[in-house]
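Reopening this ticket.

The earlier resolution said the output was attached, but the attachment link was broken on my side. Pasting everything inline this time so it's all in one place.
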Amino acid sequence: MQCHLQSGCQKCRQLSDFTTVLAVTCTSSATDPVPESTVRLARAIFPVRVPDRPTRGNRLPIELIFDSFLLPSAVGLRSTWQLGWQGLYRAGDCSLDLRIEPELNSPRAAVIGQITNHVLPDLEMDNLPSV
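Inline output:
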């Protein structure tokens, strides 16, 4: 950078001089004590807001076990878009079996799924809170 400034570039020289003066001004003003009354007034005008940290629950890595789009099409079918999609995901002791099927003559789709626990298969998994 010094070589470039010594080559005579006026635009970069002006920017370098400005930033040098700015750095000196900021450094010198940081050493001046600010009266407590001024600090109180500034805090009243601009209250310090601590952003709410998002609460993070226990997060588990999710593993894709099955994806119907990764299977080859059945013999004789050119496209499987009308058959829908099915996927199986596993995270920890639980798995999510999800199926999406298009509704006939409609732009809508039906979403069907279930959550199961491999370790405790008798555990009730209904009414789980959504995240």
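Reporter confirms the inline version is readable. The mean pLDDT is 82. The first strand starts at residue 63 and ends at 67.
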